[in-house]
Amino acid sequence: MKWIKQEENWRIPVKSWCADVEEGALRQAANLAEHPALAHHAALMPDCHQGYGMPIGGVIAVRDAVIPSAVGVDIGCGMIAVETDVPAERLAEMSFRRAIQEKLKCRIPVGEAVSHPVAQEWDGFEAYLDNNGHISNFANALDRRNLGTLGGGNHFIEIQKSDTGFLWLMIHSGSRNLGKRVEELYHRKARRLNEMYHVKLADPDLAFLPIREQEGHDYFRDMLFALRYARENRRRMMAVMKETLTDFIPETGFLREIDIHHNYAAFEEHFGENLCIHRKGATSAKAGEIGIIPGSMGSASYIVRGLGNPESFMSCSHGAGRRMSRIAACTTLTREACDAAMEGIVCERWKPYRRYGKAKHLLDLSEAPQAYKPIDEVMEAERDLIEPLVRLTPLAVLKG
Asked: Which long-range contacts (CB under 8 A, 24 or more apart) does 309-313 make?
């Protein structure tokens, strides 16, 4: 841990594994410290940076309530990694890696507004509707087409090599548009409920739903559905990755698979209480628990074992964490520097920035390695939270 801070007007302290927290994230942490439903303390992971309502890379414990924005819009966003027995030298040729990546692009829809042309079958849709009736537009036509697709932003598909010289497959993705709609619906409900009861909050974006109220129960039900959807989404893409690698290397063996969420809420025992732990851009790191901490595009990722540190609510970082905004990256980084950072890695080069703002007519460099904190510094800052087991470096990166 790097520091602990307690202000006079705060109900709880903030404990940080991030030495230098940016001003916006620090302000959000202060809002958490004043929140009437939070317990014990707020924990900031070393990849902490400003988010919506609550810092990304934050962990909080809430008594008898849930805060939709403290889970976030990409409910169930997380990682899946598979270890193979294939020596990495089999993919030494860039052209061979590029051929594999091209086939993956044909088989997995990639991008923010890209989906399958037809609905995908999954018994999870019918199970949700059978149990709850048609109470919302969750499990709609878009959700069915999006299942088994990557999305955009910082989501990725990577072929990696371990320091011991073997191939790993890794995917970072979540619940696509489903999680966004769940968060937005229940955040509106939370704000109306808090206003009706005259709840005073430092930031109305931290509106909460009591678990004992119907709205809180409904959010938790639909959040769990989004978590199952996100896991199935990753599973399907990984199945395609396995099949594709086997097409090129028929003797491939798959040794183990790890799948984790890093945007969710769960009831857990901490400090002698049953609390609703919210991890927003944070990974569970209970004693002996195996997790995944990805780096940025072009940098190392890690397979880790949790140490069960109670001060972090048994959590750790979910990745490297941004060090500059998307617009700042596009307006300050150069194509030459970003190309150099991706030397030797198969990837598609930089496209025009598609969002509005100052970077509208520039290249989209928002996912370049330089836009993120150095992953090895993040790992060093949380040595009391996790034990690194496997270091992985990228050979091919596919992004939306």
From this structure: 309/285, 309/384, 309/385, 310/270, 310/271, 311/1, 311/15, 311/41, 311/43, 312/15, 312/17, 312/43, 312/45, 312/59, 312/285, 312/385, 313/43, 313/59, 313/60, 313/61, 313/268, 313/270, 313/277
**138 pLDDT band (50/70/90 cuts)?**
confident
Determine whether 361 is an active site residue.
no
Model pLDDT for residues 154-199, shown as the tens digit of each residue? 999 999 999 999 999 999 999 999 999 999 999 999 999 999 999 9
State the distance between the two ends of the chain, measured CA to CA, in whole angstroms: 35
Q: In the structure, what pLDDT confidence band is assigned to residue 357 with cuts at 50, 70 and 90?
A: low
Which of 35, 40, 155, 318 is catalytic? The answer is 318
Start-end of H helices in the chain: 23-33, 94-107, 123-132, 141-146, 176-196, 214-248, 326-332, 335-341, 375-381
φ, ψ of residue 366 to 5 degrees: the values are -70, -20
Phi-psi region for residue 333, left (φ > 0), alpha (ψ -120 to 50) or beta?
A: beta
Determine the Cα angle at 88 with ends 83 and 91, to 5°. Answer: 120
- Kindly report the backbone phi and psi dihedral angles of residue 360, in degrees, each rounded to the nearest multiple of 5, phi listed first: -50, -40
